[in-house]
Write a structure and sequence with these properties.
This protein is of the alpha+beta class. It has one domain. 26% of the residues lie in helices and 13% in strands. It contains six helices and seven strands; from the N terminus they run αααβαββββαββα. The N and C termini lie far apart (39 Å).
């Protein structure tokens, strides 16, 4: 019964993250958020302790992770606590924090020299098949290094199976579904070819 509740809360987290993705795109000419290589908000003078990862601009839109009176986190360590209640922590994962991984093909990874450039939504071929964000895999309670974003090299190990052997996933058309990792098609679900 607890697992079903955790899976439902995880789906709700992904809905909230999807809403933040939509807000980001509306404010940024249809571009999806990406890993920017700096802490989001630093360039505009906004104090923020989110991190230089794909979650940073979304934390801003979710009004979490910011050093402001409206945030419920007074420090970065509080935000990065596995028990912290915010949409980047799946409730089924009790030992680590920020428990979702993002698709580099869709959400970009600018620090790597533009191998994965930031994308506009209208450049996606089949949004209903493209996974944007999914549960991240944990091993012995820890997230493996270099799995906060996935591509063809690591999608089979980065995407987790913590909900009865399936991963909850947010697709680019903003629908959410539980998917078996073995059912993920590299071309359709990751590369969007």
């Amino acid at each position: 019964m607890m697992e079903k509740g955790n899976a439902t809360k995880c789906l709700n987290n992904l809905r909230q993250i999807g809403g933040a993705v939509g807000q980001f795109m509306a404010d940024n000419d249809g571009y999806l958020p990406c890993s920017a290589g700096y802490k989001y908000g630093e360039s505009s003078g906004t104090a923020n302790f989110a991190f230089s990862d794909w979650q940073a601009p979304l934390a801003y839109y979710l009004n979490i992770g910011r050093l402001s009176p409206s945030t419920s986190f007074s420090s970065e360590s509080g935000f990065n606590d596995p028990s912290a209640k915010h949409p980047f922590n799946c409730p089924a994962c009790k030992t680590t924090f920020r428990t979702y991984t993002a698709n580099k093909y869709a959400m970009g990874f600018l620090p790597s020299g533009n191998t994965y450039p930031q994308r506009r939504f209208n450049s996606l071929l089949r949004p209903s098949q493209l996974i944007l964000i999914a549960d991240i895999e944990t091993v012995n309670g820890n997230i493996a290094q270099n799995t906060r974003q996935f591509d063809e090299a690591n999608y089979q190990t980065a995407i987790g199976t913590r909900h009865k052997g399936k991963a909850n996933a947010l697709f680019a058309d903003f629908h959410i579904e539980a998917i078996e990792r073995t059912a993920i098609d590299l071309d359709k679900n990751v590369k969007n070819k």
